[in-house]
Amino acid sequence: MNTLLLSVSILCLVTTGLIFLLKKIRQPYLIAYMAAGILLGPYMLKVFTGIHEIEIIGEMGILLLMFFLGMEIHIPNHHSLIIKPLVAQGIKILLSLGFAFLIGNFIHLDFRSTILMAILFTFNSTAVVSEFLKKEGRLNTGFGNTLLNILIVQDLLLAPVLTLLKAWSGEHAGIHHLILPVLFCIAVFFLFKKIRNVQEIKLPDFFRTIEKDHDLQVFTGLLICLGFGLLAELIGLSSALGSFIAGVMVGRLKVLNWLEYSLTPFKVFFITLFFVSVGLRLDLDYLYRHYEIILLGTFFVLLSNSVMSVLVFRLLGYNWRESGYGGALLSQTGEFGILALTIAYKTEVIPYELYKAGLCITCLSLLFSTVWITVFKRVGQRIL
After folding, report:
1. What are the contacts of 174-181 at 24+ separation with CB within 8 A?
2. How far apart are CA 275 and CA 281, in angstroms?
3. Which of 30, 51, 123, 255 stands 20 to 30 A from 332 (CA)?
4. pTM of the entire structure?
C-alpha cells in the first residue's frame, strides 16, 4: 500500500508540475500525461514497471471519453453529415493502402506487414481529436461532426481488422464474427434515426427515483457506459463504440442530467492514466539505438496522414484552412493502432523488431501530434 501510495503521489506531483509548465507555454495537457509516463516508466525512473495494469485502467478513460462525447454530440439530420464520413474514410483507406504498398515495396516488407502498416494509417486518436475540438468549441459544428463521425467509422472497422488478424494467426473466425457487428450497427442506425429529434426519452415513474439520488446516478451511469462497452466488445466491435452509443441515449434521459458533472473527475483521471500508459510503452533504449529510423518513421506518419486527410477534406468540399486543420488533427496513429500492433505481434504475424519500431512510432506520433496540430493551425491562420 505504501509503495502504491508513493507511486501515485509522485505521478500526481510530476503531472501537476508539467501541466503548470505547459499552461505557461499554452500547450495541450495531453503532452504532460505522456511525458509523465515516459519519465516515471520502466526505462527511466522506474516508478511504474507494470505497464499492463495501468494500460487496462487507462482504457476505461477511453470508454468514459466516448461516453461523454455521446452525451454532448448532436445526431446529424442531414444525410451529407452521414455520407461524408463514409466517403472520407473510404478514400483514406485507399490512400493508406497506396502509401503502405509504396513504402513496403521500397523497404522490402512482406504482404502482411504492409497491410498492417495500412491499418496503422487508417486509425487515428479519438482522444486527441476530440480534446482539440472541444477546446476550440467546434464539436457540434458541421466540421466537428464530420471529424467525429470519421472516427466512429474507424471504430466500426475494428471488427474486420481483428477478424483478419485472427485468420492470419490460424485462429478460426466464423461468419458470425462479421454478421453480428453488421446487425448491431443496423440496429443502432435505426435507433439513432428514431431518437435524433427527441429532446428527452421518457422513462417509467419508477426510474425517477434516480433523479434525486446522486450515488445511484453515478453507478447507474457507469453501469450503462461499461455495460454497453462490454456488449459491443462481445459482439466484435470496439468497446469505445459501445460506450459512445450509451452516451447518446443517456444524454436524452433527463433523470441522468446531473451525471455529466458527477463523472467528469473520473473521466479526467482515467484519460490521464491512458496517456500515461502510452508514455510507459515508449522504450527509450530501443529508441536510442534506432533513433534515425524511428524519428524518420514518425515524421513520415505525421506528414503522410496529414497529406492524405487534407486531400480527403478538399474532396469533400472544405476550404484549404479547414482541410489543413482537419489533416493535422488526423495526423497521428491512434489507440487502435497500438491494439492492432500488439495482437499482430502476439499472434506472430509480425516479428519483434517491427513490433517495437511500430510501437515507438505510434507513441511518438501521439506525443508530437499535439504540437503538430498547434503549428498547423497557426501557420494556416497566417497564410490562408
Report:
1. 177/236, 178/236, 180/235, 180/236, 181/156, 181/235, 181/236, 181/237
2. 10
3. 51
4. 0.83
Q: How many CB atoms lie within 10 A of CB 360?
A: 23
Q: Helices (DSSP H) in the chain: which residue ranges?
A: 2-24, 30-40, 51-72, 80-107, 111-122, 126-135, 142-156, 158-168, 176-195, 214-235, 239-250, 259-281, 284-289, 291-315, 320-329, 335-346, 352-383
The Cα diameter of the chain in Å comes to 65
Residue the block writes with cell 476505461: 60
C-alpha cell at 65: 471519453
Angle among Cα 316, 135, 28 to the nearest 5 degrees reads 110
What confidence tens digit (pLDDT) does each residue in 17-31 have? Answer: 999 988 887 777 888
Tens digits of per-residue pLDDT, 32-74?
888 998 898 888 888 887 777 677 777 777 788 888 888 777 6
* Least trusted range by pLDDT, from 130-134, 227-231, 335-339, 363-367: 335-339
Nearest to 309 by CA among 333, 341, 338: 333
Entry field: residues in the chain: 384
